[in-house]
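chain below, 145 aa
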Amino acid sequence: MRRFRDDRGVGWREEGERFISCAVEEFERGGREGRDEVIRDAAEKAWLAVVKAVEALLLAKGFSEDEVETYRQKRLALDRLAQADPEVRRLGLRDRFAAREYNLHIRAFYDGEYVVEALREEMGKAERLIEDILSLIGRGGKMTF
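prediction:
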């Protein structure tokens, strides 16, 4: 079963943009209402947007869906891609992916460990990471939008 589609259907880009947009809205609402669970869910949505973008990059760079199903597989594929692609290495995608995983997914979502303003920064970093991935896919990936 395909999770991502190319020019024949709705792609990861729309899904990722939806996740990050919902994450930002939810984060702001959680802050206004002082609701921890909403803020934590927002962090997880931002993390999922990053995951979708990274998976799309890996698929565009020639990895199969079977090679990038788990977070572990994505990390290892990014390791290999960073060794083979100087632009991926220059942009620090491996480190940035790992940082978002730790700060958004593990600390904020699972552990409930965050400072609101620091988490706001993390969400901005997630958005910038997605933008950088979009630029990489746009200049030479196999997928079209």
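The two ends are 20 Å apart (CA to CA). The CA atoms of residues 14 and 38 lie 22 Å apart.
thats it, cya
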